[in-house]
Amino acid sequence: MPEGSALIPLIGLGTGPLRGRVCVDTVEQALRLGYRHIDTAEGYENERNVGEGLRASGVQREDIFVTTKISPSHFAPRELERAAKDSLMRLRLSQIDLLLLHWPNPQVPLSETLEALCGVKRAGLTRHIGVSNFEVTDIDEAVRHASEPLVCNQIEMNSFVDRPKLTAACRAHHMAVVAYCPIARGEANNDAVLKRIGHAYGKSGAQVSLRWLVQQGISVIPCTSRIERLSENYSIFDFELSEAEMSEISSIARRRSRLATVISPMRAFALKTLPAPATSVLRIGYRMLRRVMGGTAR
Fold first, then answer.
1. Tag placement on the chain: N or C end, fewer CB within 10 Å?
2. Is position 201 annotated as part of the catalytic site?
3. Catalytic option among 35, 44, 180, 286
4. What is the mean pLDDT of residues 236-244?
């Protein structure tokens, strides 16, 4: 398990683009295959589907780790508590395992948001709390304001987008790192280096990308609706990358991440200073750029 006080499974299912019956069936099948971490968010508009999939799987509730996220538009204290209760209602659960702030929201003081988030934990609505898409300065500020442990930061990370400074900052605060888009929207399967390394183990480029992350103690939540991909993504614990292979992938990831290193602080500054309509346009542009780079932002 990664660092932090929450025992977050090393592999889980991301459900961001899944909706309706496809979402229900995918969650059910993932749990039947052995997945024990399911990630959703109120912004995905699929919490009802996720909850139905949980129940259909037949897996005991205490054996499943469920993560959901509060949208930035609900970061005001009263709205945050209501949003947490609404998520529980849609999921049909009595308690969430991990409740995250989905993105930083400069329109609401972080101190107020963290106070409300910690209050939700003390009220028993969630076992653990954390953040998502927070940069280093955001993490430092959040930890200062939190009266309860923040157990993780969920971020985009893969062999195209490496975040060593952010990862180090999280670990300095005893926070686990959970990587979304860990196979770069399938692009890992097309990467020559990952394919070459995987060939020696009888594994795909995507499996090598996932293994590179979990070998660093980083949990991964790849998303797919294809049953064969669910099984493939889960089959990463029967091989181990050598130190040289880990270093080679890290070196390539760092080179690919140079543009992201420049862009992320600029994006964070813009989100804190621009009005809401402008930040919406900025997020759209950021997602488009991430796709060009081989990843995807959520």
1. N
2. no
3. 44
4. 98
